[in-house]
Write a structure and sequence with these properties.
It is built from 11 helices and 13 strands. Bound molecules: zinc ion.
């Protein structure tokens, strides 16, 4: 937990067009995860918020941007994985007028986080969980708005369309800002770290995190996002990407390839090791072809956390299919 008596941190901000600002949530390391603030007509919304430790950075960002805490209308939460929504309960206590907007499968877990905590501890272990996430505070039911697929939401007249996008998780939704040709994608449109940009543009990888990853659903959700022909996607990891058709094609190709690698590894003596090796090989090859400015060794060290989570998610998928 951050020391509350300490001076407010200096938030790392990335200002984009159309009143959109990314705030580094300082999760794991800088450049790993970004919450977004959307400003419109004197009102504001957060899209995803990060963890409890992100909250001081988000409040400091409001201050830098000149947004009163009373002016925040929404916490738009793409899904309830804790790197996205773990700090939501704490942040809500600081934003008197905010409503948390949640997928119907995610909402119950934010109002009563016990199962969410248990599930996350199963992935990370108890000690690492405490380090990463701290105490998850619930959100009062009367401050939660549960969505339906296709709902429209208005931020001071700025229309956002909500799409339910299973594949990464069953409780995943995205927010489409048609007027500004962009979509806030959470984890549906993969991960794209700015350190791996090359002269060819962004490098992207899918996230197949446990326990609900499903390749067919994820590909269908990505196709649905692509059907809006957005100019930009805003990812949690890490913020704005353009060149959307190329990235979409790469994501879909990788998801198919990872599913194939997992299926091939299903009979291996050590599935985890076989999947991880296949994924590492795939990423090395793609990164080299793309001209990513890191050595193959450095690439896999940099992506170690994603290799690990993706491997666990692919194994969970294999086991679910067998059951
Ligand atoms: Zn996630």
């Amino acid at each position: 937990m951050p020391d509350r008596t300490a001076a407010p941190p200096t938030p790392r901000l990335f200002r984009h067009a159309d009143g959109i600002t990314a705030v580094d949530t300082e999760y794991v390391h800088p450049g790993h995860a970004a919450a977004h603030i959307v400003q419109h007509g004197g009102r504001a919304a957060f899209v995803d918020v990060g963890t409890n430790d992100s909250v001081p950075h988000l409040l400091a960002a409001l201050e830098v941007l000149g947004i009163a805490r009373e002016s925040v209308d929404y916490l738009l939460l793409t899904h309830v994985h804790l790197d996205h929504a773990g700090g939501a309960g704490r942040l809500m206590r600081q934003l008197p007028n905010a409503t948390a907007v949640l997928h119907p499968r995610g909402a119950p877990h934010m109002m009563d986080p016990a199962r969410l905590i248990a599930g996350s501890q199963a992935v990370y272990g108890e000690e690492r969980f405490r380090q990463l996430y701290g105490d998850i505070l619930p959100i009062a039911a009367e401050r939660v708005q549960v969505t339906r697929d296709g709902d429209m939401l208005s931020l001071a007249g700025r229309e956002l369309e909500i799409l339910h996008t299973p594949g990464h998780a069953l409780h995943h939704q995205v927010f489409v800002d048609r007027a500004h040709a962009c979509i806030f994608t959470g984890d549906t449109f993969g991960l794209s770290y700015r350190e791996l940009d090359s002269p060819r543009g962004a490098f992207i990888i899918p996230t197949t995190t446990p326990t609900q990853f499903d390749p067919e659903q994820l590909i269908a959700s990505i196709d649905r996002l692509l059907s809006y022909s957005p100019e930009a996607m805003y990812l949690m990891h890490f913020s704005r990407v353009t060149d959307v058709p190329r990235l979409g094609a790469s994501l879909k190709g990788q998801i198919r390839e990872l599913a194939r690698i997992a299926e091939q590894a299903a009979a291996a003596p050590d599935r985890s090791q076989a999947i991880r090796a296949g994924m590492g090989e795939l990423w090395r090859e793609l990164a080299e072809r793309h001209g990513c400015p890191v050595s193959p060794e450095r690439l896999l060290t940099f992506l170690e956390g994603d290799l690990e989570l993706n491997t666990q998610g692919l194994i969970a998928w294999l086991d679910r299919r067998r059951a």
